[in-house]
């Protein structure tokens, strides 16, 4: 009845009035999330699949947490229009626009990042990688293309097809790098992208994601 053309979308106002008049009202927190999603698109519509995912709790827990714990009334202006921001806030905004395609998600990210607890995981991993590289660079007396050194593959940290039984190598190879270029690029990405993400999602989620990537690699 509400979608005679079978588009899969209805206006958010129509949906909200239907929810409020229904004998089994939707959970207010879930309604807030759905309205936030609708406000994130240009047409202000509710998608049927988003509703199904929300009711069945398929929506990402990070989005739910942001809605539940954050300010419900976010500024309506585009995030890029905010003035008077310090260097750090401008950096967080830059990261939001680099990794998030939706303006609503960008604003949630911008207002939900936290400095406490500090993002220690990504910082510790990056620092360890730098220390390990410096140690091997001094030991091998080689700073570029270290893998060509005959002693490189003897390291207990490197993944080696002949030593698959040594399970720790599937993780510890993340501390080894070919040279300064690879180390610098990895460290830059980890600090610029990983640290801000850890400030939003926390150490447990970001460490699980990072280590899953290491295992997949």
Automatic annotation (TrEMBL):
The record's similarity note reads: Belongs to the peptidase S54 family.
- Specify the enzyme's EC class, one word: hydrolase
What's the protein here called? rhomboid protease
Compartments it resides in: Membrane
Give any Pfam family that matches.
Answer: Rhomboid
The molecular function terms of the Gene Ontology recorded here are: serine-type endopeptidase activity
Q: Which domain of life is it from?
A: Eukaryota
Main location as per UniProt: membrane
Give the InterPro entries listed for this entry: EF-hand-dom_pair, Peptidase_S54_rhomboid_dom, Rhomboid-like_sf, Rhomboid_IM_Serine_Proteases
- Fetch the SUPFAM superfamilies from UniProt: EF-hand (SSF47473), Rhomboid-like (SSF144091)
Q: How does it sit in the membrane?
A: Multi-pass membrane protein
List the coiled-coil residues.
none
Enzyme Commission designation: 3.4.21.105
Catalytic activity reported? Cleaves type-1 transmembrane domains using a catalytic dyad composed of serine and histidine that are contributed by different transmembrane domains
Species of origin reads Geococcyx californianus (Greater roadrunner)
Cellular component per GO, a single term: membrane
Peptidase S54 rhomboid domain mapped to chain residues: 166-217
Please provide the record's keywords in A-Z order. Membrane, Transmembrane, Transmembrane helix
